[in-house]
Write a structure and sequence with these properties.
Glutaredoxin, five-stranded mixed beta sheet, 6 helices, 9 strands
Length: 187
């Protein structure tokens, strides 16, 4: 019943975020801070990341399409930012394939697109908890080599509350504007 309520709340929130004449943010009932130990034994807390805006994205390094396309879109969206604006956000890539993606591989993968980003790989149990916390969709395909997964970018504010979900079909301007508005403390 609680999961059903969470899904209903998410759908209502998505509807409210996408409605209206302006660019709106709302506090979504999913996501937020992560406090866990990664596969390298390092403590991870989103609260300890100093940038006021986090763009959290779930994927895996063997992903043939959505992951590289989304990371390329984030890169394109942030290239036009001023040097000061570039210090106001951090991209965090969380692997949904902890068996194949080591912390080093995940970091190297995401930094190919965005040199200042963070790549994270957790144990399977921790990964599953984080996926549930973010209400992300993750399912291995029948061949066991590919993983179907949601492609949202979760936009977290300085308090590590999820304020917006950016869809893979949204323009790069949505990413740019989210960073600018949330980092400027105008919300």
């Amino acid at each position: 019943m609680q999961r059903l309520f969470l899904i209903f709340s998410l759908l209502v929130s998505l509807f409210l975020v996408d409605c209206g004449p302006g660019f709106e943010f709302t506090e979504l009932p999913i996501g937020g801070n992560i406090e866990a130990v990664d596969r390298a034994g390092n403590s991870v807390s989103f609260q300890s990341i100093p940038e006021p805006v986090l763009l959290v994205f779930f994927g895996y390094t063997y992903c043939p399409d959505f992951c590289p396309n989304t990371l390329a879109k984030i890169k394109a969206a942030t290239e036009g930012l001023t040097e000061e604006e570039k210090t106001k956000f951090k991209v965090v890539f969380v692997s949904v394939d902890p068996v194949r993606d080591s912390p080093e591989t995940t970091t190297k993968y995401v930094r190919f697109y965005l040199p200042e980003s963070i790549g994270l790989s957790f144990s399977p149990d921790t990964t599953n908890k984080i996926i549930k916390q973010y209400a992300a969709y993750v399912q291995k395909t029948e061949d066991g080599q590919s993983i179907d997964h949601s492609t949202y970018i979760y936009v977290l504010d300085r308090n590590r509350k999820t304020r917006k979900l950016i869809k893979s079909t949204d323009s790069k301007e949505v990413i740019t504007k989210s960073i600018q508005l949330l980092s400027g403390n105008t919300i």
